[in-house]
Amino acid sequence: MGAFGVAVIIVIAAKTIAWLVQKKLRNAGLVDAIWAWTLGLLAAFYAAIGPGDSSLRLALALMGATWGGRLGTHLFIRNWGQPEDFRYAHFRQKWGDKADFNMFWFFQFQNVFTLLLSSMAFVPVAWRADAPPAVCWLLAAVIWLASIVGEGIADTQMERFRADPRNKGKVCRDGLWRYSRHPNYFFECLHWLAYVPLAIGAPWGWISLGAPLLMAWMLTKLSGMPMLEDEMARRKPGYAEYRRTTSALVPLPPKSS
Predict the structure, then answer these.
(1) CA separation for the pair 149, 183 (Å, rounded)
(2) Which bin fits 152, alpha (ψ -120 to 50), beta or left (φ > 0)?
(3) Percent helix, strand, coil in the chain (nearest 5)?
(4) What is the Cα–Cα distance from 14 to 171, expressed in whole angstroms?
(5) Which three-class secondary structure state does DSSP give residue 194?
(6) Looking at the whole model, is its pTM more than 0.85?
(7) Closest CA to 199 of 141, 119, 123, 148
(8) pLDDT of 119-162, one tens digit each?
(9) CB 189 within 8 A of CB 218
(10) Is the dihedral of CA 32, 33, 36, 38 positive or negative?
């Protein structure tokens, strides 16, 4: 069985576990953590079996596993013991008696994007025979570090805001959230860009560009911002003004009220 076949088994097994847990808890939020952990595992898997340069594969394993471990753990802690995320709660209510059946296939459908992301970002690096130039190492390290630190700061600022009862019903404008409505999503896209310098010059290395583009499309057009922003506009009176004055993704100075 080829590497991709094993990757397919890994993602199907991971999402099946997520489905079994949600079936017991009636809370599908755990799938978000398992998604991140699975991608981190795939980075380590491709690094372990790839025939490429050993130093490059070690870097891939550390970069992917660290990112996936941090994000997955953050999402697990944030969602555990909390009401079901409004997205999954909406689907559960909409699907009614077919909720468990539909949720299983919805989880498995997400694997299409998991496999695309991991294949585009990790495979060109793990299969590269030679090490990239020093400038590419440096660029990858700077992008990766900025993405990890930036996303961690954004997550911490939002959790601190939510933990304060005085902020109930208010819009978070603290720190990075003053300059972007979704700074965590911005740094998420930036993370996938970190593998591009390591793939430059490798056979089929250009496909690594697809990973940050796919993630940006998913977050801005598919599953991230569209549903979330509609929900925030409904729940928080000040969100319409926040949306008008604050950049959607890339951190920029806010517009004048």
Answers:
(1) 12
(2) alpha
(3) 75, 0, 25
(4) 34
(5) coil
(6) yes
(7) 123
(8) 999 999 999 999 999 999 999 999 999 999 999 999 999 999 99
(9) no
(10) negative
pLDDT tens profile 74-101: 999 999 888 998 899 999 999 999 999 9
- Write out the two tokens for 194: 């970190």
Alpha-carbon torsion angle 70, 76, 82, 86, nearest 10: 80
Please provide residue 195's backbone torsions phi and psi, each rounded to the nearest 5 degrees. Answer: -85, -15
Tokens matching residue 235: 């729940």
Residue 99 carries which side chain, given as an amino acid letter?
A
C-alpha neighbours within 13 Å on the C-beta side of residue 221: 6
Contacts of 237 (CB under 8 A, 6+ apart): 169
- Contact (CB, 8 A) for 46 and 60: yes
> Are 97 and 80 spatial neighbours (Cβ–Cβ below 8 Å)?
no
CB 61 within 8 A of CB 72: no
**Which residue is associated with the tokens 């590497």?**
3
Tokens 């576990």 label which residue?
17
Separation of alpha carbons 25 and 198, rounded Å: 41
Q: Tell me the residue type at 105.
A: W
**Exposure b/e, 194-232, CB count within 10 A at least 16 = b:** bbbbbbbebeebebbbbbbebbbebbbeeebbeebbeeb
